[in-house]
């Protein structure tokens, strides 16, 4: 089995992948902690022959995690953001300071579509752009839905936005404080994604496929005007492209990859942007 770890600052996700069949056998999530307990926090390592890690947690957490894993697992791969990988050149002045989860998303998206806008809807909402040909432009970071809610300090932080709500409902004026907060935050997030995508595509003269991942991807997806695809395993797919360990991965078949989304005509993107600037 292959154990893939996506370690965040607060939440860590894992999945077990069968080496022979390339099928996902199990998956889960735990709070990121200083000390891991195999068999409780993560699967029993007796069945694991290789580990791949993407981590944005503190370096001490990553170091201790790797030390624990290497006691029992022969192969441990730790992804790092680099100046170039798999045909993509990093747009950051200091590539090592780009969050590795964002870099994994960029690499996975590029392998799927040959240029894209990758959006990770987690604690923060990050947007990265990579052009056809592999030039990563850099990106944007804005507060995520939960972070925006916590910043208001109105006692509504524990009232989550229902991911099954229709977009029209979430974009309507709220009729109580909880609704007003949730709908305002939602409007802010989807408006930012729509506007940033349109601005960058207009400036670069190319419309790009739009890919979403992260815990809030499904709810953000409902409010976007731009054709897009949701890819929950996009960070894992980045690990697969960097460290292919199965026959399917070596053949370029990424787990859970969606069909590439349709791309709107650039003229339509520009028309929508021009209209929004008149408002």
UniProtKB/TrEMBL annotation:
It is found in: Cytoplasm. It comes from the Bacteria. This is Type III pantothenate kinase. Pathway: Cofactor biosynthesis; coenzyme A biosynthesis; CoA from (R)-pantothenate: step 1/5. GO terms for cellular component: cytoplasm. Transmembrane segments: none annotated. A monovalent cation. Ammonium or potassium. Its cofactor is K(+); NH4(+). Substrate binds at residues 92, 99-102, 177. CDD domains: ASKHA_NBD_PanK-III (cd24015). ATP binds at residues 6-13, 123. GO terms for molecular function: ATP binding; metal ion binding; pantothenate kinase activity. One of its GO terms (biological process) is coenzyme A biosynthetic process. It catalyses: (R)-pantothenate + ATP = (R)-4'-phosphopantothenate + ADP + H(+). Homodimer. Catalyzes the phosphorylation of pantothenate (Pan), the first step in CoA biosynthesis. Pfam families: Pan_kinase. Belongs to the type III pantothenate kinase family. The active site is at 101 (proton acceptor). K(+) binds at residue 120.
